[in-house]
Amino acid sequence: MRAIWTLALLLGCNSGKEEVTQEGDVDTGTSAGGDTGGIIEPLSSFESGRYRAYYFQLLDDLGDAGEAQGLDLDGDDVIDNKLPSVLPMVVTISGNEALSLEGLNGSISDAMSADQLIMLMEAQHEGTELTLDVLLGAVGDGDSLAVDEASYGPDGSPQARLNGAFASEKRFVVSSDRIEIPVIFDAALPPVLLPLAMASIEGTMEEDAAQGTLGGAIPVDDLVSQVLEPLLPPEDEYDPEDYAGLERDALLDTVRDLGNESLADIELEDGSMAVSAALIFGADASDW
Fold this sequence. Notes:
By secondary structure, the protein is an alpha+beta fold. The chain has helices at 2-13, 83-94, 101-113, 220-231, 248-263; strands at 48-58, 119-126, 129-139, 145-147, 161-166, 171-183, 192-206, 209-219, 266-267, 273-285.
């Protein structure tokens, strides 16, 4: 029931967009009363917070009333969330129902309930700048929570760090050119860090809770190599008859070519193609 109320809240919150400057940055407010020497007052009193997600699901492209769901990633005033319409084709080619929208959300939900997938978030608000890290969690000694080392890159910085600002006391928008978020696609396999280009999160945050919509573009090559390939049987167990008569490498190449040529809806700065996606989450304050 809690997840249903969270979903209703999120869809209501995302019916409009925050005010944005011409450069695409969130409007963080105006100078405090009169001539203040250019000092900008933050729009929120929030300082910092740590959270653990209790809900994390892929968002369908259309709501119950046929309304588009997701985020506008490229600023063209059109919601970008192509993944749900791509997954049926992937299921047909791979023969793996786990790659349907329902299958993926079921795997994520089961993994979160079993502590196989733990998504942590840490937020810092200094001045008018908000920094939000999305981290893979782990259960340590005495059932204490810790951050999995996979959450950090070689230089020690988080794989998923987004920057932005509050647009009101609770509403916020953060973004990043590229992040990697923890996702699980099969209960029998460990979580993977899924790349998201043009990543953005819009939502609400306060001391004891955070919720929002996470949108981004999954590069087609990464979708094939990090999602589809691990879910296929290994070469010595793979039977082409189960996959439209295609050998394993041929199947992956077919999906990759089809994705790049017909299914992707976002062209990235390097010219590669990507499929837009959106997820919704709810999180409670947590100590770790």
